[in-house]
Each structure stands twice: as C-alpha cells, then as structure tokens.
Amino acid sequence: MRSLTLEVPRGEVFGFLGPNGAGKTTSMRMLLGLAAPSDGRARVLGRPAGEVGTRRKIGFLPEHFSFYDWLTATELLQFHGRLYGVSRADLRRRAPALLDLVGLTDHADKRLRDFSKGMLQRIGLAQALLNDPELIFLDEPTSGLDPVGRRLVRDVIKAQRERGATVFLNSHLLSEVEITCDRVAFIKHGEVLETRELRGAAAEAMRISMRARKLSEEAVTGLSSWASSVRLEGERLTFTVDGADVLPEILRFLVGRGADVYEVTPLRTSLEELFLQIVGTDGGL
Amino acid sequence: MGTWIMAGVTFREAARKKVLWMALAAGAAFLCLFANGVYFQLKDLNPHTNIMLKRQGVGALMMVGLYAVDLMAVVMTVLTSVDTLSGELASGTIQAVATKPISRWELLLGKWLGFVGMVTAYVALMVGGVTAITYFLSLHRVGGVLPHHLLRGVGLIWLECILMLSLTFRMGASFSTLTNGVVALGLHGIAFVGGWIEQFAALSNSPRALKVGITASLIMPSEAMWRRAAFEMQSPLLNALGFSPFSALSVPSNFMILYACLYMALALALALRRFSQRDL
C-alpha cells in the first residue's frame, strides 16, 4: 500500500475495484485487524481498526472461505455464532433461517468436506451475517458461484442495504458491482486513483454526443446554461449534462438557433470501460 | 469465553486427526505386546526366586513400558500440533475466526488448551494402561506392582509433553509446519542424547561430560523430565541398584523441573506475543 485514503459512509454499498495485486485484499485485512499497517491509521465504525469489541458488529466473508471440514453446516454456524456471543437460543432460530437464506437448508447436516466451492462460499456468507452486522466485508463473494449463487449474493447485499448496513465489497465481477454498489473506488498499486458514484445525482450525469450542422457560435456558447465540457469537432458536438431531463430543452434551443440536428446519442460508459480507462489496460502489473 | 469455545473446537479438531488415531492404534498394539511380555515374564519366573526380586523384574519391565509411552506421547504431541497454527495460517482458515470478537491471545490460548486436553487424555490412557496391565497381571503372583510415585511420574511425563506442545506453538506462530516439526523434534533429539550423555558421564565419573549433558538439558529440558519421572516411578531399590536402564545415576533436580515449567511458560508467552503481532 502507498497512500490509501478512503472514507465509506454508513449505509453505503461500496465497491473496491482494482487489478490483481492492487492491494484490495490487503486493505480489507488491515481494516479487519488481520494485518497491521506500517504507517497511517484507519477507523472502522468510529473505532480504531481491528478493535475486538467492534468486531462484534462486523461480518466478514474471506475470498476462499474454508473451515474445519468435519463440521456440518449447522455446527459451523453454531460455532461462529457463539464466537459472536449469540445465545444458544438465538442460534437455534438464526442458523436455520440463514441456511434457508443461502439455499443450504437441505445440506444443514452435511459435512463441509462434502461441500462444493460454491456451497462453501454460501455457508461463508451465512456465517458473515450471523450477528446482523452493521458492516460487512465481502472479499470476492461471487467467486466460485454459479449464476443462481451470484444472484443470491446480489439479493443479500440489497437486503443488507435496506437494513441500513454498510457493505464493503471487493470484486472483479464489474457487472455485479455495477448493479449492487452505490459508489466505487478504483485502486492501483495501493493507491486510490478515483472514486465514482454509481447511484444518486453524480451518477445521473451523462455525456452526450450530437451530430449537427449549421451550429452557430452563439448556439454552442449558449449550451453552457445546461451543459458543461462542451466541445465541437466538425459536425460532432459533445457535452455533459446532469440528466436526460434537459435534453428536449437543449434540442429546442439549438433548433431555434437554426441548427440541423441529425443524431443525439447518450454516451454510456460501462464500469468495465471506466475501469480500463482509469486503471489502464496493463492491469497494473 | 472465547478461549473455551476455541478450546472445545480445537480438542475436537485434534481428536479427529489421523495421527492421533494412529498413535492410539499403535498404543493399543503396544499395550497388547506389553501385556504379553509381562504375562510370560511372570509365568516363566522361577518359582524359587525371591518374591522381592520378582517384583523388581516386573517393575523394570513396567519402566520400559512407561519409557515407550513417554516417547510415543512426545512424538504424538508434536505431530498432532505441529500444523495447527502454520496450517491454518496457510489455508486462511484462521481468518474466519480471527475476525470474530475474540482477541488473538484468547484464540491461541484456546487452541493450546484444546491440545492440552487431548495430550492429557492420551498420557492418562497410555500410562494408565501400562500401570493397570502390570498391576493386574502381577497381582496374583507377586502381589501387584505399581510405580513408586505414579502421580509424580505422570505429572512429569505430562509436563514434558506440554513443554513440547508449547514449543511447537511458539515455532508454529512464526514458521512453516515442516520447519516447526524439524526444530521441535531436533531439540528433543538434543535433549535425548544429552540425557544419555549425562547418565554415562555419571557412570564413568566424568564431570566435563556431565556438564555437556546438563547443557543439553538446559537447551531442551524435555528428556530430563522423563529421567526425573523414571526416578520417581521406579522402585527405590532399582534406583539404588542401578541395573535398570533408567537408574538415576544423575537425577534431574527440582530446579530442572522449575526450569522446564518456566521454559514451557516462556514458550507459550512468546507464542502468544508473536501470534498477537503477526499478520494473518
């Protein structure tokens, strides 16, 4: 890590993106107290990172969840629940509910050694939710999961957001991140390159590409009332607006100033394209 | 609380290790062999031999049995515990636990206690087996032979195993399973050879060789605990006669027992410190 500066507000679903070796898992390990930073400090839920008491409110799914393979799914949840301080009575209620949530009810008494990679990931997700955490760290939660499992993870994240929990998500599956996250940070060589809103006002901003003729200088200048970063190259006019609502007004304005408009295209940048733009195609290696 | 939860799951984990069951199977086979040995020794004893001598003969065989138990217990302790930290660190299993509201020292102490439980059960079972076989087989013919100070002996064998356990925990907090095993058994090897050097040095009255032996025991006091245990369990007559392989020609002192306790406590404390500070 170099100079990682990051803030995630409560209740946000936050995506932490970056190429292999960028430091995503290391950052998560430092926030969880599994690794100590050589310099700098981090606070989690208002307390110094790694504090034992704070961990009562935190859930964590490691990238490759594994545990004693002789335990059954139910026994695993009971063991981890007891570490969280959940009473036995509560656990008798919560363990079946969580097994149901992750689709493992039929495998409740099966030993982990007979679990597939995807099933281990599901039981790992269940143990991360045992304590109704305020903050959940998910390190590549969809790794090893089939499309049904990925959908399940998405639903779980959505449910946690609705519950008011904060989710800190490391993932390579950008399409998943695009659907689930409120905000993402792009990290490379242990440094945050950029953060982007995927929901809310900032996410509504869009770049528009327009093909038009007879564009007067006055018309182009006048666009600044609704748009920013206005550029004209030949017949191609590009500009950024806060939302699609202003587009009809812009069109009326331009046509009113004598312009002939042939084409209006919103330039949607997928998260993957954004990732490649920000992080670069070398993958940071 | 977290310590006891960890101790419980670790005891169950340790109890599931194949090496423990192999050690128990080997132990059971050994006890059968031992029982046969004692049975035929007693049966073939010259009826005219003095009963006192018969008892000493049976007692000497019992000491051989206890020595074998001591060796098996030490090896079993090292082999079952050698990968508990390094293995779980390598597989990442430990991360799921270390991120729960349990401090690192509770986690490590819990694991240690789990193994202590398993080692205690093994030592009790094996020493109890040898003692019971010897006593009941000899009851009819020579009136039952028992170790002179059984509890002191068992306690010292147990201390030897717990010392080895604490050492593997300390090494496991820093090194790989293989390195840990090599170092732990290597140190016990030094103690083993040192113990015999000390015995022969006492026999040949060589103070310099005696120093070499004692130095080896200070480097690793495990074998010294067996020699003291042998002294405690063997009959005073055998100790005095000196014709048993475990004759106490040079008996480790109370200071050496205290030293072993401190050694064990220090190894555990350093394991706790290292484990609390390292990245997982």
Q: What does this protein structure show overall?
A:
The complex is a heterodimer of chains A (285) and B (280). Helices cover 35% and strands 23% of the residues of chain A. With 285 residues, chain A is α/β, with parallel strands linked by helices. Chain A has two domains: 13-200, Rossmann fold (3-Layer(aba) Sandwich), CATH 3.40.50; 205-271, 2-Layer Sandwich (Alpha-Beta Plaits), CATH 3.30.70. In chain A, strands 4-5-6-1-7-8 form a six-stranded mixed β-sheet, with helices on both faces. Chain A has a four-stranded antiparallel β-sheet with strand order 10-11-9-12, with helices on one face. A two-stranded antiparallel ribbon of chain A has the order 2-3. Chain B is mainly alpha-helical and 280 residues long. Chain B is 82% helix and 0% strand. Chain B is built from twelve helices and no strands. The A-B interface holds A 29, 32-36, 52-53, 55-56, 58, 60, 62-68, 70, 79-80, 82-85, 124, 127 and B 1-2, 5, 9, 12-13, 16, 91-93, 95-103, 277, 279-280.
| Helix-strand makeup class of chain A | alpha/beta
CATH architecture of the largest domain in chain A: 3-Layer(aba) Sandwich
Proportion of residues in β-strands of chain B: under 5%
Broad shape of chain B: globular
Number of separate strands of chain A: 12
> What class would the helix/strand composition of chain B place it in?
mainly alpha
For the largest sheet of chain A, list the strands in their spatial order: 4-5-6-1-7-8
* Strand proportion of chain A: 15-25%
Q: Which stretches of chain A of 5+ consecutive residues score pLDDT under 50?
A: none
Number of helices of chain A: 10
The profile of the biggest β sheet of chain B is: none
Specify the CATH class of the largest domain in chain A: Alpha Beta
User: Could you give the order of the helices and strands of chain B?
Assistant: HHHHHHHHHHHH
Helix content of chain B: over 70%
Number of strands of chain B: 0
Radius of gyration of chain B: 20 Å
Q: Pick out the low-confidence regions of chain B.
A: none
> What is the multimeric organization of the chains shown?
heterodimer
How many domains of chain A, as an integer? 2
